[in-house]
Amino acid sequence: MANQSFIPPQRILMGPGPSDVSPRVLEAVGRPTIGHLDPAFVGMMDDMKSLLQYAFKTDNALTFPVSAPGSAGMETCFANLVEPGDKVIICQNGVFGGRMKENVIRGGATPVMVEDEWGKVVDPGKLEDALKANPDAKIVAFVHAETSTGAQSDAQTLVKLAHQYDCLTIVDAVTSLGGSPLKVDEWEIDAIYSGTQKCLSSPPGLSPVSFNEHAAEVIKSRKTPVQSWFLDLNLVMGYWGSGAKRAYHHTAPINNLYGLHEALVILKEEGLENSWARHEAMHQALRAGFEAMGLSFVVKEGDRLPQLNAVTIPDGIDDAEVRGKLLNDYNLEIGAGLGALAGKVWRVGLMGHAANRHNVVYCLSALETVLSQLGAGIEKGVAVEAAMAKL
Amino acid sequence: MANQSFIPPQRILMGPGPSDVSPRVLEAVGRPTIGHLDPAFVGMMDDMKSLLQYAFKTDNALTFPVSAPGSAGMETCFANLVEPGDKVIICQNGVFGGRMKENVIRGGATPVMVEDEWGKVVDPGKLEDALKANPDAKIVAFVHAETSTGAQSDAQTLVKLAHQYDCLTIVDAVTSLGGSPLKVDEWEIDAIYSGTQKCLSSPPGLSPVSFNEHAAEVIKSRKTPVQSWFLDLNLVMGYWGSGAKRAYHHTAPINNLYGLHEALVILKEEGLENSWARHEAMHQALRAGFEAMGLSFVVKEGDRLPQLNAVTIPDGIDDAEVRGKLLNDYNLEIGAGLGALAGKVWRVGLMGHAANRHNVVYCLSALETVLSQLGAGIEKGVAVEAAMAKL
């Protein structure tokens, strides 16, 4: 295939993202490119902002998609809110808290780590201890929905605590946005970032962010320039801000934005709460199947994200062999474990367009077949039967 | 159109980019999303690298597309090569040298500006004076093809000078790559970045970069961490580097990469040198038409980029009115002037897929019509006739 057109295989994406992209979104992505200052495009940008406000449940004016993937959305929050010398409390219970720490260090600030076991939610008690011990802390950051484990922390409680100690909050909602309850204004989150390739089911490459007025004020009144020119919101808002006049900052990823816009239109058509309920229903069916198959969840009941199901790999079964067979024989992608969980768990996503009945049944059928082939002693048909009873 | 599907108008893009995207590339962008660690995708990544090496005329192993627009490609070069306290000589002859300066300052380093008038090429004599006066300079940076004016500097001579004084070089080739001669290895460029939405005619959102071994060594042996986690090449290369094992760093913009891959396949099918020749031929025809119409170029003959034609707006003609009419009445986008040239020039792009005969004739016809309507005293038909004689 050297230097020839690339025709991707038609996969079913049930890993930790990207998730299956709907034909409507793919069609939108392929529409003719127009200019980033074209009045028609600027009109779409305004509409995009209102749709993102809907998805985040916020009225924040400073709500838009960063022109790069979720990691750049994280960096946008940290680079704009953190100044050298600041102290930032980071609650880590998986991979992505570690990335936050890297962002803080590279910004010349001091991270204070509050660690919870991977697979557990963030413990508010530990956060409060850290807040008491660090009265000079400026920011509390945590991951709402840990993509590496499937744990869902109580964002509202953590934000309330942070505010009691006069800290701003930065929340990672990469995997939660669109898939499970997230209420930016009601929970009083100051700064939040997400991704497009999870529960919004748009291709990767953009990171929706939102900042409340308090966070926006902190950015405007910085003592030092933002380290990144590309991510400096004081400049980016000349392009994404409101008002008729949009100034060129960088060239926006036009076609990717078409895709995100269409994905958000689809989300609004379904209704945000209906989308949350669909993710939960599909999760319950998948869970019934997994349990019938004897697979156990990494995260305890009540703390689980419906859209990211991390389950323990049975003894004697080789992780890579199973995922390879699922991909090659059934065109089905599920995710591997990250960090300490590598080789020990599978991460099965039910995200956005991929959170549907076909996928639940297909995934259970394929996994049952492959595990049986490898002698895992799975009783035939029980997983699908258990799931079907819930669908 | 509130919260409804966005159907963009079908424009003809003859501004400074994005340029017209071919139907083949749009089709590629709309293909089914697959995972960023899928073996099929990893195979495409390897092929992409070889195609980018072809386009850059380099054997550099460290050649890949950054997962964000050209401004992030610029920042990738500066953030990885510059350390706090370094001195960087920047040759500025338009908007983008100013952006380089911002990158250097935000990296805690000291910029030394070598300024040339906008519309002029970078003067090697001035650079040599600056190199003599700053023996502690570590890097020389300049724009090969100034998108704000259409001036094409002599990259080979500037790089040779920089090397004589033991400086590394960072070259902005956002507008040159694929459209006019650029030879990374032969000219011994150390670090270079480009964009996809100019002469490659792929949607915006990616920035091809290339680093030679010397630059790669400097990055590996940094004393301080790269300020940006997202752009840190020491980490990014775990994903884009060679070898069978690709480690997750961030989620790549899958569908955008499909588009860039297809655009590069098209470039290779045509042949790089043939693409350069086509841009030059279309430029000569457009130029004949503009001159017949009485429009004069900002840049003197011999220093002009074929793909970016900046021409002076006739006295008494309102910039915005003309561009508005072209866009609304003829679906034709041409570019406005930037910075000091705002309101004084138009920037007409002939980039990639857009550098074709139809566009040359259509642009001249539309501009002639609009200028006549506004009483500019254009003799009818002479522009198209002059262009046709060259086509």
Keywords summarizing the entry:
homodimer; 391 residues; alpha/beta; Aspartate Aminotransferase, domain 2; Aspartate Aminotransferase, domain 1; 2 domains; seven-stranded mixed sheet; four-stranded mixed sheet; 13 helices; 41% helix; globular
Tell me what the structure shows.
Two copies of one chain form a homodimer. The first copy, chain A, has helices at 23-29, 39-56, 70-81, 95-106, 124-133, 155-164, 213-220, 233-240, 254-270, 272-292, 319-330, 357-373, 382-388; strands at 12-14, 62-66, 87-92, 110-115, 139-143, 145-146, 151-152, 168-172, 191-193, 207-211, 308-312, 332-336, 345-349. With 391 residues, chain A is α/β, with parallel strands linked by helices. Chain A folds into two domains: 22-268, Type I PLP-dependent aspartate aminotransferase-like (Major domain) (Aspartate Aminotransferase, domain 2); 272-388, Aspartate Aminotransferase, domain 1 (Alpha-Beta Complex). The first copy, chain A, has a seven-stranded mixed beta sheet with strand order 2-10-9-8-5-3-4, sandwiched between helices. In chain A, strand 3 (87-92), helix 4 and strand 4 (110-115) form a beta-alpha-beta unit. The relative contact order of chain A is 0.16. The mean pLDDT of chain A is 96.
Radius of gyration of chain A: 21 Å
- Based on CA inertia axes, which overall geometry of chain A fits? globular
Q: Helices and strands of chain A, in N-to-C order? A: EHHEHEHEHEEEHEEEHHHHEHEEHH
Can you summarize the main beta sheet of chain A?
Answer: 7 strands, mixed
Q: pLDDT below 50 for ≥5 consecutive residues: which ranges of chain A?
A: none
Strand order, biggest sheet of chain A? Answer: 2-10-9-8-5-3-4
What would the CATH topology of the largest domain in chain A be? Aspartate Aminotransferase, domain 2
| Residues in helix, % of chain A | 40-55%
Percent of sequence in beta strands of chain A: 5-15%
Q: What oligomeric state best describes the polypeptide chains here?
A: homodimer
Distance between the termini of chain A: 42 Å
Q: Could you name the CATH class of the largest domain in chain A?
A: Alpha Beta
Strand elements of chain A, count: 13
Give the name of the CATH superfamily of the largest domain in chain A. Answer: Type I PLP-dependent aspartate aminotransferase-like (Major domain)
Most extensive interface, chain pair and sizes:
A-B, 84 and 84 residues
What is the overall number of helices of chain A?
A: 13
Specify the structural class of chain A. alpha/beta
Query: Can you name the CATH architecture of the largest domain in chain A?
Result: 3-Layer(aba) Sandwich
Q: What is the domain total for the residues of chain A?
A: 2
Mean pLDDT value of chain A: 96
